[in-house]
Amino acid sequence: MKVGFFGGSFDPPHRGHVALARLAIDRLGLDRVLLAPVGIQPLKRDRPQASFADRVAMIRLAVEDEPGLEVSLLDAPRARNRPNYTIDTLRTLRGSLAPDDRVFCLMGADSFLSIGRWYRAAELLLTCDFVVASRPGFDLGRLAAALPGSISVGACDAPHPDSLAVCLRTSSGRESHLYLLPDLDVMVAATDIRAAIQQGTDPRSLLPSAVATYIREHGLYKVSAKL
Fold it and tell me: Domain locations in the chain?
């Protein structure tokens, strides 16, 4: 089985998140993608504006009609407000799967640009394969520049004809794959959605309809009456 792990704040989950997960399923033949809202992201100073419970509920609504997509609690808040580290979460996921199952970590290109600052970044990149999606025209060379110095990039065959792939290697010979999906056509930022709501602008075109309804009914993000 091929399992995708897609972590993030999902504050709120939007059409771009769903599009990225669907693109990974279609291009790489993933059997399922787990969308996991994070408790505390170490690199972000600000906590999510919506509670963890609200974000879980919104993801459930966002994926209810999306085969292969499901919400995951793997990245739930830790005891004593400890930060959530992706490498620990992926190892927990790996431990719950069969030995021959494959894990893919999904993210957008903008998130990957900070990968060098992630906890135990070099080790993380070899924990599983990575799938990075970007808008058309994104300079893919920026992704290689973002890698930790101990990781080198080499050519390798892409097992899936609709994706680009490179191999990530260390001097000890360990390696993983980085799959590039350079044609994600739905680019949405959660910060823009929250700002639109606070300004009284209707952002429903950027959100699954059930998520927009949930935001309105629960008064999230200072929702105006006309949302």
Answer: 2-187
- The residues that bridge with 164 in the sheet, in sequence order, are 180
pTM (predicted TM-score): 0.93
CB 41 within 8 A of CB 84: yes
pLDDT, one tens digit per residue, over 134-163 is: 998 899 889 999 999 999 998 877 666 667
In contact, 19 and 27? CB cutoff 8 Å: no
What are the backbone angles phi and psi of residue 193, rounded to the nearest 5°?
A: -65, -45
Burial degree of 119 (CB within 10 A; 0-12, 13-18, 19+): middle
Residue where the block lists tokens 């999230």: 220
Q: Residue 224: exposed, middle, or buried by beta-carbon count in 10 A (0-12, 13-18, 19+)?
A: middle
Residue 196: CA count within 13 A, CB half-sphere: 18
CATH class of 2-187: alpha beta
